[in-house]
Structures are given as structure tokens and as C-alpha cells.
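Listing S7. Sequence submitted for prediction.
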Amino acid sequence: MMRAIVTGTGSALPANRVSNADLAERVDTSDEWIVERTGIRFRHIAAEHETTATLATDAARAAIAAAGLEPAQIDLIVLATATPDQTFPATATKVQAALGIDDCVAFDVAAVCSGFLYAVQVADSMLRAGVHRRALVIGAETFSRILDWEDRTTCVLFGDGAGAIVLEAEDDAAADTPRGILSTRLHADGRHNQLLYVDGGPSTTGTVGKLRMKGKEVFRHAVVNLATVMGESLDLAGLTPADVDWVVPHQANARILDATARKLNLAPEKVVVTVDRHANTSAASVPLALDVAVKDGRIKRGDIVVLEAMGGGFTWGAAVVRW
């Protein structure tokens, strides 16, 4: 049986790190107000020459190197983003060209903050089917380009960045304890469009638009949906919360992370939290946090890791991985 194994992780953040105090100089807010409500202390903002594609490429190079591969060995690129460089072509093709890969399947998926989980399931399915051998799965965003910097309730929450993993197909028929992606579970409910959205688009306004959010309603849905989908993905893998070594959640709000952990009776120390360092980076936040936990040695071979996220749409999902 073919299974998708994570063999490398990587991440990239813009050099420009903006503190809450820096924001307070341009927006009616304070460090205390932001930390108390979100846990966020810093975010990274892309410079003029930095784009979703350049950040994605840097994260991809790091993940490929960590996997011990050369770019030419990648035959599939799935890039999750809500802030592409262009309406078309796909930002994934720009990453492909930047990596010097002459020919491989490359495309984007759009599921906002859940985009990385959607991309993981797509890549996992294609590897299991035997269509591809090595996949680069990326979450990358430049949300600073769609923020209303006059709206203190949203602009303080988001930042820019990219994270990536390499998935490789491996036959685990003889393995006593199979590694890799054990299960994935995805959802979407378009009835909640107006709770978290961007008020523009090519076919409606002809503009990029700005992010709009009703925070209290999003919080309520997030806690319920994330706890439910994590339980579903564990059930599919034949596991329980007690089997989990690490949860790597979407880094949106520290209070959501705490509430979700309590709902599943998970110890807080099992939850990887990086939202304080880079704020909500949408599709990039799960792979960014994952790379941190891999690099600092927390996640080890054989660990059961649950990835989860929820975003505009609403979309939400989770994946269970044995490292």
C-alpha cells in the first residue's frame, strides 16, 4: 500500500518584523489589547519586492533540502493561497520556474486558512494513486496586501509568510507501524460567507478587495468545528486523543487554540503555538508552526501529529500523520 511520508519541512518569513507597539503608532490599539485577545506579539510584513511566490519558493527550497532532494526530483507542486501573485497563472507555476523545474504538475488550491490541509489531501491522494512520486505542498500568503489598515479589529491579526513540506510515496505494506499521512478529513459550508470574506474579486468588483470579518461568530464556529474535525480524523485513523503526541493547529488566535484543546481534553503542552511570533498567516500558518516544531526537536520519528485549520468559506479540516 502506498502512503505519503513527510520527508522535509521548510518555512520563510519576510525580514520586516512588526511588533504590536509598532502597530500602535499607526492604529488605535495597544500591545496589551492585542496580546490579551489574541496572544499575538509580532507579525512579518512583506516588502515591496516580496510576494507570495518568492516566500513560497524560499520555503520550498528549505523543505527540499531538508528532504535531501534536488528540485528536479519533485514531480508535483500543490500551493495553497488566498493571495496569489496573479489572477492567473497559478502561483505554483512561478515557484516551479523559480526552482528550475522544467516540467511537473503545478497548481493552486484556494481554501483560505484551511488551504494547506486541502492541499495535503490532494497531494496525498495523487501519491497514493501512484500518479506522482514526490510532492511539494506549500501554504503561502501575503495577507498584508488585502488588509484594511484602518480597521484595528482585523489588521492586527494577520501577517505574511510561507511554509512547505515534501511528501514522498512509500510502499508500507510490510511495515508493522505505517508512517505518513494516516487520515484526512475536510469540510466546507458556504452559508457562512459573510462572516469572513474579502469584499472584492475579478468577476464581481474587478478589484482585489479587503478582508472583512465578524470575529465573535468566527470564534464560536472555529472551536466547535475544529474539535469535531480533529475527532473525525482520529477516528478514521483508528486513534483517540490519548494517542496524540502533538497538535499543530492553524495559528489564528491563542484563545481558539486553548478552547479547542480543552474541548478534546488535550494537555496544553501538546499544542504547538507560534501565533505570538507571526500572527495569522492563513494557509501558511500550519506548515510554519510544523517547521518550528520539527526544527526544535519536539516532533520526533514515530510521533502522532494532528494538523488542523479553519478558514473563510467556511472551510475546515484535519490530518493525522505518523512522523
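Caption to Listing S7: primary sequence and predicted C-alpha cells for the chain studied. The longest helix spans residues 215-236. The mean pLDDT is 96.
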